[in-house]
Design a protein that fits this description.
The protein is built from one helix and 39 strands. The two termini are 40 Å apart. It has a domain of 84 residues: Immunoglobulin-like (Sandwich), CATH 2.60.40. The protein is 3% helix and 41% strand. The protein is mainly beta and 510 residues long.
Length: 510
């Protein structure tokens, strides 16, 4: 048998690129923005509450938006009484707010199907389902540009209405439910594997992914515990000890850049409610520290560029925590709200954006990394409707009425992608503009001096340009890439700095 060595090398390179992609700029998964659910973005978000546009289908209850490239997707609940057809799936332009398409999913189980609901977006597919009210229904993949159905999942799933899937490096969906966790093939909806598990309660079913592992809450007689599973096979690995007793658990896990698993244990009881840091030692999940946590159902948490951990107190403050020791470094003022289910996003300079989950007192707040308040913005009925950071730092937050709001991110004149806050590892920002023709700017940050190689590959794994090669001092760098001699299509920008390998997908359109 004759093997084409060039094809083998190309395939190996594409595998490496897929594994090393950093999902941080687009909000692919609802509660946390990336497979680790840590709310981090490599984009540079809004400095002020400068509205780029405000335009959306009217809604009586806000649900979160997900973003990929120039496409925002969300579900807008227009009628609570019309369960099957009172909610519209809509895609809007990130840059203009224009409606691109709307969709109404097929009704597969007339007696039990719930409202249309967008779960995630990735690789040109919007993932949506009618599960969400403790009912099983199918996942659908919709073309993100047209809304056309691409496939229906082989299995029905029971993903709650405040949850979302996570992703494997190749784009496969990792979907949790009360009774199992499943990996779904992203290309056709078939089952890759399914593993039984028992979830504590709603919003405790979703998975967080790090490397070749996924982490889930599981119920036990002593209280919720955190379990580790193999991402490739779905095989259970090991579990932590039960955390704090009790049974209710309505907040998902999130993971730090070093693999620390953060378990927000919350059931509105001061004796059980803690944020617990767990170290994965390859044979066991071992508690490192715990900090008291307020009751914040359906919340999302965050990790700053310096690995600081952001959590919440019982009196509704945001706190910044030392990831090594668990000591509280900073605290915000009390957040006034009629209902506290906060969600957050953190940009490349450590600016923290928080929606308070309120109804009549709905509000968005922006903080410096040390939690000094920068600005606030009233958004009635924000509920679980945001925030999410897309390309160019555009921030999307959803409220009721026609309040789908886009806030203007940082300009692209060199400010975008800069790092103002201490970062412990290299970063590679999304190129700008993207799509581009024929040139684009690539920004990256080096925390320390060392050998650096910045290259561009095509989809066959062939190197088409070497932009940087050699030793560089620490700091922020920008490089121009000119694709004038290349054909239109997708290209990969790859940064190698020390042991770190980061990749961005670039689109050349002529």
């Amino acid at each position: 048998m004759v093997i084409n060595n060039h094809r083998v090398v190309a395939c190996q390179l594409l595998v490496l690129l897929a594994v090393s992609v950093v999902w941080a700029d687009d909000w692919n998964a609802g509660t946390g923005g990336n497979p680790a659910r840590n709310s981090r973005s490599h984009e540079h978000g809004p400095q002020t509450a400068d509205i780029l546009w405000q335009n959306g289908l009217s809604a009586t209850i806000a649900q979160p938006a997900v973003i990929e490239g120039n496409i925002i997707a969300m579900s807008r609940i227009q009628s609570i009484n019309d369960v099957l057809h009172g909610t519209v799936i809509v895609a809007q332009s990130l840059t203009t707010g224009d409606t691109l398409w709307t969709a109404d999913l097929p009704v597969d189980f007339a007696a039990t199907d719930w409202r249309n609901r967008v779960s995630a977006i990735r690789n040109g597919r919007v993932y949506a389902s009618r599960s969400g009210n403790n009912n099983y229904s199918f996942f659908y993949a919709l073309n993100s540009e047209t809304g056309a159905v691409l496939w229906r999942s082989q299995d029905s799933v029971n993903e709650c209405s405040t949850e979302s899937p996570s992703f494997a490096p190749n784009g496969d969906l990792i979907v949790g439910s009360f009774t199992n966790v499943e990996r779904i093939n992203a290309t056709d909806g078939s089952r890759v594997w399914l593993t039984p598990r028992v979830s504590p309660t709603s919003n405790g079913s979703e998975a967080a992914v790090y490397g070749n592992r996924l982490y889930l809450w599981e119920a036990s007689l002593q209280g919720p515990k955190v379990s580790s599973f193999d991402l490739t096979t779905g095989a259970p690995r090991y579990s932590s000890a039960a955390i704090s007793g009790g049974f209710v658990q309505q907040v998902g896990l999130f993971i730090g850049p070093d693999g620390t698993v953060y378990a927000p244990r919350t059931q509105n009881n001061s004796s059980t409610d803690f944020l617990v840091a767990l170290e994965d030692r390859d044979t066991a999940l071992v508690e490192r520290w715990r900090v008291p946590l307020g009751y914040c159902p359906f919340a999302s948490f965050g990790i700053g560029p310096d690995s600081s951990v952001y959590s919440y107190t019982a009196d509704r403050r945001v706190i910044r925590i030392n990831p090594q020791t668990g000591s509280v470094l900073d605290s915000s003022e009390i957040i006034e709200t009629d209902f506290f289910q906060p969600r957050m996003a953190i940009d490349s300079s450590g600016i923290v954006y928080v929606t308070n989950g309120g109804f009549t007192q709905g509000e968005m707040l922006s903080y410096d990394p040390d939690l000094t308040l920068r600005w606030t913005m009233p958004i009635p009925g924000v509920n679980i409707g945001g925030p999410a950071i897309g390309q160019n730092g555009t921030l999307i937050v959803c409220g009721t009425g026609e309040n789908v709001i886009a806030l203007r991110g940082q300009p692209s004149n060199g400010a975008r992608g800069r790092v103002d806050f201490a970062v412990n590892s290299p970063t590679l920002s999304q190129n700008y503009p993207n799509p581009f023709n024929p040139s684009t700017t690539i920004s990256y940050y080096l925390p320390q001096a060392g050998d650096v190689r910045l290259t561009v590959f095509n989809t066959l794994g062939q190197r088409v340009a070497t932009l940087v090669s050699g030793n560089q001092a620490p700091g922020q760098r920008t490089v121009q890439f000119d694709g004038a001699t290349l054909a239109s299509g997708h290209y990969f920008c790859r940064l190698q700095a020390g042991s770190s390998v980061l990749t961005r997908n670039m689109l050349l359109l002529k």
